[in-house]
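2 proteins. here.
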Amino acid sequence: MLEQTSREFIQRHRLLEKGDRLVVAVSGGPDSLALIHFLHALRDELDVEVACAHVDHMFRGRESYEDLLFVEGFCKERDIPFFGERINIPELMETEKGSLQEMARKARYGYLRQVMDRYGGNKLALGHHGDDQVETILMKWTRGAGAKGRAGIPFKRPFSAGEIIRPFLPVTKAEILDYCKRERLFPRIDPSNSKDTYTRNRFRSRVLPFLKEENPHVHRNFQQFSEESLEDEEFLEELTRVKLNKVWKVEEDFSTLDIKRFLQMAQPLQRRAINLILNYLYKLKPASLSSIHIYDVLRLLKGENPNAQLDLPSGLKVTKAYQTCYFHFGNLSGGPYYFELGIHSSIILPTGIRISLMPSRGYVQDDGGETIHLNRDGVTLPLIVRTREAGDRMKVKGMEGSKKLKTLFIDEKIPLHLRDRWPVVTDSEGRILWVPGLRKSVYDTGEGREDSLVLQVKSNHLLGGS
């Protein structure tokens, strides 16, 4: 019987506690109508308060408005506080992007949050049942959901200032219909629930009957799978967080992953780590994102190509640069820059690096940067600080002849996106004097003289040694 099964489920998972203020989302259909009737009947026994919230999405004109009036009347007969709202989803579709179902869901949950606040509710009860659970898990598997997504519908989860609870997950649609019949409830029927246009309806009409033929209690096995999967996932996710915190760093415009240390993690933790990163970076997770993308990222990280990029939904890019992986929206490198630098002056580059030029007389070395010394008569002022250009060559200190900057970047394993914003210092005649953080040129005298110049760079995380 529905009453006993649901009551035991509520007790086992502590879905309701003394003093709770429940808001029950009621469409007027069998599931939600049975749920509010059931919870209202238990209110004194459980010492909880029950209110009702209904949203008319205005899909079916007068018919959907009559659903609202029906639910309102049902609550009035039983002195249940009622909150109702009409939201014109078809009209919103003309000005906002998104699918009809996504927009309706967003509007519905937005209104339910408002009701929770106005009523002072701490629990939102929804009418999902065991058949819904079976359909959801099968849909997730078919689509390719990530680790936690494969577990289906959780029996409770955080929502607003409280929780969403689903007391009917252990019972079937048939049991709900039987309850409605026994309690003389006459729910409204939404004809769209029988249309094969929607994926869920196709699973409901074609797959679920076959499974129930094989095992009438199949929903119990799916619910057990869901609960055990969520427990396992919480444990593995916590392990993953501990490991991930040591290899992943979040910057202002991007985040970085230490590939070598990441790949030392166990394979199950790697998958979950990528999922955690994507969940963090997406403010609103795209509907098109699936486990396929997690495996795409893993293939990128394990691939032999030292420089590679992957485009994920909604503009998120994953850029591999040797042993570092960058997650970012938009381009990493930024545009080219060009600055002139005179004596007794400093500039701050778009990358945050400060470069200063001063006479060596009176200069005191500090620990905050690196320097080269230039013969005042051997260079033409002002100096130029710019990004790289095609054909750039540098006479590297300690080497014969000149070397292409492109070769220098490759030898030093500088990521592609950093090469386009790395500072190159030349004199006014175009002679490259220094590529800070990489190599010094033959123009560096190595020490200060009375008439020489000191070029100092105060670096950030983008530059390494000299």
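next one coming up
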Amino acid sequence: MRVATQGIAQYLTSKPSPSAVVGYDTRFASDRFAREVAQVLAGNGVRALLIDAPSPTQVSSYAILDRKASGAVVVTASHNPYYFSGLKYKPEYAGSASPEVTGRLEQEIAVVQRSGQVRQLRFEDGERQGLIEIFDPRPAYIAQIGRMVNLQALKDAGLHILHDSMYGGGQGYLKLLLSGGRTVVDEIHGERNPGFGGMHPEPIPPNLDEAQTLIRKGGYNLGIANDGDADRVGIIDERGQFINQLQVMALLMLYLVEKRGWKGDVVRSLTMTSMMDKLGERFGITVHELPVGFKYIGPKMTEVNAILGGEESGGFGFRGHIPERDGILSGIFIADLIVQYGQPLAKVLQHLEDLVGPHAYARHDIHLEREEYADRRAAIYADLQKNPPRELAGERIQRSRTDDGFKYYFADGSWVLTRFSGTEPLIRVYSEAPSRQRVDKLLAALEDRLGVRQVA
């Protein structure tokens, strides 16, 4: 942590009057790691603005703009299991670091690794010298969310919302933003538990079983779940049904265009739904498909002034906010969607399907042994590049894309994709098609071609 921060500090010292927001999540020792980060920054003459409590990553990102900082360092491992920790770096524009920025950071960190030299200033001395400041970012963030949506109208709407913060950095935020009127927010897993109660803090089934069970008992209009650092969202409708992230992005686009009157382009990752393209055709909106990651999506959103950007992981960004994922705002927008349409979420989802037709989706995560992963991945890459398939599941492939994994498109709008994790021994296989039967066939066909198969 100190070595990485020293590299970041060296990068920041190239900027005039450098300062950095320091945020952290609820993981084991994250608050202590954050203090170490602040001490290293201060030791290099970079003013450290330390957030006073665990918070969502996007709160740190927005604080960059509010405090006019040079960047932010966030101690978090996002949606990953409890035994991970890490650092996210956010540049001065409050989005994901571009490949150019990460390249510079890697160079600086490598220099520190070779030299072994890390400069620190004791925390108390840093405070005394004005190089470390503890602050509360919530008032500025709340004011910004209030500019994005009418919070008072939502407070008065009388919704009953279940928030599963998954023991993460988003705990307390929805209550803070939506309480004070007729709307009631009940929160589960809203206390600090560095082991995440044994759950994986990614807002997808089966991690949301408890939330879905509670909603199925009745009385709720909506369930909102956030991952470990609350930049991703999972949505559950009033029936306790999980609304997958592809459906959520299409719903967000529908809401922004039909009910908020927003006009402009939309940016999506290649793992995201073709429903966006069909909505784009209907509303005269250009939809851009990019490689996975907000390091690609955020800059494109800025370039074209997009109204919405998103990826299959459940991370969505919006015009007028930061060029970054915000799982809290995404959940609030879905709550406002229910109010604006005056219908249960399941009915609005049916309205979406009436416009774009039926869509099914599934993702298989195939775990390999770490010792064999690099060789297996290299062999599969080489095979697909040298011998690309012409058909899968008896259907001719119309076109393909190979800049971020291998994606194959079919005449009926179906697609299947495989990508390889750079951090875990994991192969992901995704598919979207008009029916679940078709999805399963495409997944099985590509997995057979790869020589791997998800174990039930």
